[in-house]
Amino acid sequence: MAQALLSIQILPKLKAGDTDIIPYVDRAIDIIKESGVPYRVGPLETTMEGDLDELLDIVKRMNAAMFEIGSPSVLSQIKLSVSGSGEASMAKLLQKYPDGQ
């Protein structure tokens, strides 16, 4: 399939009594880490790089994990850049900003 960049902000609804979203977000990022795809965590979203089908499968696993840890519903906001020529790359897009500045 095509090479892609996928940025996701996952917003699980908290279960009754929960006030901290961080454990949910940490679990979602753990799923990305476990996948082995290149990724970069940002303050509002996390960007992954890889095969489009694989990235979409990771999103499915992230959403399923939110239900497993008690979220009654999940909103996932996704940005997607797909390259049929295989040129989708975080490094290429960020080469001008190596230090994030």
Automatic annotation (TrEMBL):
Taxonomy, superkingdom: Bacteria
Protein name (record): Thiamine-binding protein
Organism placement in taxonomy: Bacteria, Bacillati, Bacillota, Bacilli, Bacillales
Any single Pfam family the record assigns to this protein: Thiamine_BP
Family assignment from sequence similarity: Belongs to the UPF0045 family.
GO terms for cellular component: cytosol
Species this protein is from: Cohnella lubricantis
Residue ranges of every copy of the Thiamine-binding protein domain listed in the record: 7-96
